[in-house]
TrEMBL record:
PROSITE patterns on file: FAD_PCMH
EC number in record: 1.3.1.98
Cell location: Cytoplasm
InterPro entries per record: FAD-bd_PCMH, FAD-bd_PCMH-like_sf, FAD-bd_PCMH_sub1, FAD-bd_PCMH_sub2, MurB, MurB_C, MurB_C_sf, Oxid_FAD_bind_N
Its job: Cell wall formation.
Domain FAD-binding PCMH-type residues, every copy: 115-284
Protein name in the entry: UDP-N-acetylmuramate dehydrogenase
Superkingdom, natural source: Eukaryota
Phylogenetic placement of the source organism: Eukaryota, Viridiplantae, Streptophyta, Embryophyta, Tracheophyta
Pfam families listed in its UniProt record: FAD_binding_4, MurB_C
NCBIfam families assigned to the protein according to its UniProt record, in alphabetical order: murB, PRK13905.1
Length: 392
């Protein structure tokens, strides 16, 4: 069964053969009304915790978390972080909780369901409260049943204007270690662009295409990012993931079942986050030159100065047909819904041309799919992920 803790993110059901891959489910357009705040946050964990908390207790508990999180070097932002600031599309309302993690320990703290915890009575703000105390670290998402998502650079996400009723964990695990010449162990929050530039500069081939890609290493592994005939899977040696049971597991490349924009991570029910990846590259004298050519081509063919999320649709499986070509031939370049527009430079890039709402973008995606379907009888499949505001 899928973990309840990663329920906030709705992936387009491309890989599930039992669901039609070709439609945005209707409810995406009309998200369910938010449940009351307390119900959201204090979904009872166990009978002992199920008594209702009044506003004062609620605030006291939040204060308690803040204290713990400060001690662990983490800072929770509550209700203030706007997702539009975390997304390259510049779209999205506030999330209930926001936290940045800079290392593995902090990541574990953010998602863990502390086994070292015990139930205690605590006096907070003059009131007796039930709290779970963990002395080895603080815990947030799981013990409080708050759904969470992990994001890297938000370059492949469409957030909703009403935000996200859970915790957004921003991955800033950014280390890079050179194990041997051509072998790099990299934190999943490390910039994919930066990694690509570094490897090519150091004379190794395989990640030239990563130059100019705005995502993180975690996002690139998760999606098996690719361009110019290269893809992430070609150079991945192994990947370490954190499970929802907060165990670290190592997967070798052949266990990750990579495909076009696919890795087995997308179907792991117990995946909490990709923590780090090891890449194995071959030496090459021409890597940097090739990369500069790719970067130049990208500058000319993509709207790199606009707010976009890269390609909105995957290329159809038939060789030689590209989503961009189909959209252009359907005469849809420049098509606009509110502030969302099909780029005039690259038809598979939809840009926030100013004040686009998430609904504008969803409507534009729907419209383009419909037109391409009518004209070519081809169903385009989304590459981007839409994050549902609330799923419980
Ligand atoms: N070729 C190009 O020009 C472009 C390519 N891209 C690609 O899109 C991807 C986006 O990367 P990025 O901006 O960092 O991702 P995002 O922050 O946009 O996250 C997208 C989704 O990827 C998953 N994800 C990201 N990081 C992790 C992690 N550490 N562990 C587990 N899952 C993770 C999350 O899914 P969940 O919530 O299920 O965990 C998340 O919702 C990259 O592959 C990037 O290369 C993007 C734009 C342009
Ligand atoms: C941008 C992304 O990755 C990109 C990656 O940068 C490029 C370059 O290798 O190749 C893929 O795009 P793409 O298939 O659209 O590649 P392009 O070379 O730009 O275009 C393919 C074909 O479409 C035509 N084309 C392109 C743009 C356009 O507006 N109209 C058009 O007709 C081009 O002439 C070309 O014949 C990746 N997209 C996908 C979905 O696979 C991304 O993943 O977000």
């Amino acid at each position: 069964m899928a973990s309840p803790f990663r329920q906030g993110l709705l992936h387009f059901p491309i890989l599930n053969p039992t669901v039609s891959p070709y439609h945005f489910p209707k409810q995406l357009h009309a998200p369910p009304p938010d449940p009351p705040l307390r119900a959201r946050i204090y979904k009872p964990l166990a009978p002992q915790l199920s008594r209702k908390l009044d506003r004062q207790q609620h605030e006291a508990r939040v204060e308690h978390w803040k204290w713990k999180w400060k001690r662990n070097g983490l800072k929770i932002e509550r209700g203030t972080k706007l997702l539009k600031d975390l997304s390259t599309w510049g779209i999205g309302g506030p999330c209930d909780y926001f936290v940045q993690v800079f290392n593995r320990t902090q990541l574990v703290s953010a998602v863990r369901c502390g086994k070292s915890s015990k139930l205690s009575k605590f006096f907070l703000a003059g009131k007796l409260c039930d709290v779970i105390v963990s002395f080895k670290g603080c815990r947030f998402c799981q013990e409080n049943e708050i759904p969470f998502i992990i994001i890297g650079n938000g370059s492949n996400c469409l957030f909703d204007d009403s935000g996200f009723r859970g915790c957004v964990i921003l991955n800033r695990i950014e280390f890079l270690e050179r194990i041997e010449p051509g072998i790099y162990r990299v934190g999943s929050g490390f910039g994919f662009n930066r990694l690509g530039l570094q490897c090519s500069n150091e004379g190794f081939t395989g990640l030239e295409f990563a130059g100019g890609i705005p995502g993180t290493v975690g996002g690139a592994v998760y999606m098996n990012a690719g361009a110019n005939g290269q893809e992430t899977a070609d150079v991945v040696d192994s990947v370490n993931i954190l499970t929802t049971e907060y165990k670290l597991q190592r997967y070798r490349r052949n266990e990750l079942n990579f495909g076009y924009r696919y890795s087995a991570c997308q179907d792991m029910n117990d995946l909490a986050a990709i923590v780090e990846a090891t890449f194995r590259l071959q030496s090459s004298g021409s890597a940097r030159t090739r990369q500069l050519e790719y970067l130049e081509r990208r500058k000319l063919s993509q709207p790199i100065r606009e707010k976009s999320a890269g390609s909105v649709f995957r290329n159809p499986p038939d060789d030689g047909v590209s989503a961009a070509k189909l959209i252009e031939e359907a005469g849809l370049k420049g098509l606009r819904v509110g502030g969302a527009m099909v780029s005039k430079i690259h038809a598979n890039f939809f840009i926030n041309a100013g004040g686009s709402t998430s609904q504008d973008m969803l409507d534009l995606i729907d419209l383009v799919k419909g037109q391409v379907r009518r004209k070519f009888d081809i169903e385009l499949q989304e590459e981007i992920s839409y994050i549902q505001p609330c799923n419980f």
